Amino acid sequence: MMAPQKRSAEEAESLLVGVRSIVFDIEGTTTPISFVKDTLFPYVRNNIDGFLTKNFENAEVQKAITALRDLATKEKEEKVEGAVEIPGGDASKEDVVKAVSENVKWQMDGDRKTTELKALQGLIWKDAYESKEVKGELFEDVGPMLKMLAEEGVQLYVFSSGSVEAQKLLFANSSQGDLTDVFSGHFDTTTGSKTESASYKKIAAEIGNEPKDILFLTDIPEEAEAAVAGGLRSALVIRPGNADLTDEHLQNFACIERFDELYGDEDDEDDIKRFAGDNGEADDDDDDEDEGDEDDEEGEGDNDDDDENPDDI
Ligand SMILES: [Mg+2]
Q1: Is 165 buried (19+), middle (13-18) or exposed (0-12) by CB count in 10 A?
Q2: In the Cβ-directed half-sphere of 70, how many Cα atoms lie within 13 Å?
Q3: 218 by DSSP, 3-state: which?
Q4: Which residues are registered as beta bridge partners of 256?
Q5: How far apart are CA 295 and CA 138, in angstroms?
Q6: What is the C-alpha to C-alpha distance for residues 237 and 72, in angstroms, rounded to an integer?
Q7: Among 67, 173, 285, 307, which is most buried by a count of CB atoms within 10 Å?
Q8: For residue 30, how far is its CA from the centre of ligand 1 (angstroms)?
């Protein structure tokens, strides 16, 4: 495999000319793909029993359990292999917790993305973020660049297959602080699939910009193609841990490894430091929480995850 042939910085400079809004993908773009696989999913497995026991009487938790029970009953009737039933009625709390936990782990083993599963996962992650046991992981350039772009009047949005609520939690409880205010809005797959152009047309209509004035940033070429088919601009983001891009994709799209490359201008290094804000840490190389390791930029892109769509929170 050849080293990625990125377009030059001069070309990248044109990426922001006339852009009024930027729409960001999350996994593989602002956040390592491994965050979901190595942090969020294991958190659910390791904490579900305790979470259910502690929050069993909570109305939202009960609603999520009921939904999982109804799904399991339906799937048992349909003879779905391995479906784990959840007792209702007069079953003890312990038995229900145990069955829900088994059901959730069985669904996760099969990499299922059912609405019922996502609902309970979402409640567990909310608890994890709010108790500060989990922080939304961001590549080191993300926070400072989002602040800078917002400050410059560019409207920022998210389009991810993670629910809008999950997106907000990640950015509100990020490793770089609360970034809630930089965003003008959030979109998830209730708007449509990320690989269909209609979704991007809808987003443009909701944002209220001409599609051509909106830039979509993602790691997945099929999503970039759909955005372009919807009339938007798009650039591919190459991050450590992402799947390799083909030469064709590298040729067809502008590709960036850091958001400051949107400017194609070295002077912006200083701007980024300036916009790192009061804590001033975001661009420091000694940042010990840093996930977006600059030293790894060469030869990265190995991805042992065969998941076609890594955006799966
Ligand atoms: Mg992605």
Answers
A1: middle
A2: 9
A3: strand
A4: 237
A5: 16
A6: 39
A7: 173
A8: 8
Starting at the edge strand found earlier in the chain, the sheet holding 183-187 runs 183-187, 155-159, 21-24, 214-218, 233-237, 254-256
If we measure between CA atoms, which residue out of 128, 106, 163, 135 comes closest to residue 44? 128
* Closest C-alpha among 66, 22, 191 to residue 201: 191
Higher-scoring residue by pLDDT: 96, 278: 96
Q: How many Å lie between the centroid of ligand 1 and the Cα of residue 242? A: 9
pLDDT digits (tens, 9 = 90+) for 265-290: 554 444 444 444 333 344 444 444 44
- Give me the residue label for tokens 């999520």: 64
DSSP 31: B
Amino acid at 249: H
Over residues 198-243, the pLDDT tens digits come to 999 999 999 999 999 999 999 999 999 999 999 999 999 999 999 9
